[in-house]
Request: fold
Amino acid sequence: MTIVRDFLQWLETAPANERAEAAGALARAYLCCDLTADELAPAEGLMLKMLDDPSPLVRRSLADALAASPAAPAPPSSRSLATSRRSRRRFTLCRRF
Reply:
């Protein structure tokens, strides 16, 4: 998908505050829009990518948008989190907010 590829390239150079805004918007779209099955997987993949963002602003924005919603995607499995100590730490921090 070109839009996903473009978004990933944009993430590489965008300032943290803009990435945080995009993370929140993506999470809200995931929750509020009727996404097709073909749209859900890329949205979830992008949110997982943003969960590993170095900026706490981005992770906080995701957490704020998703935390209270029963429609939020299930957290990554502990097996996948166990593969990366850094990811596990970030996931824990994100879920606390």
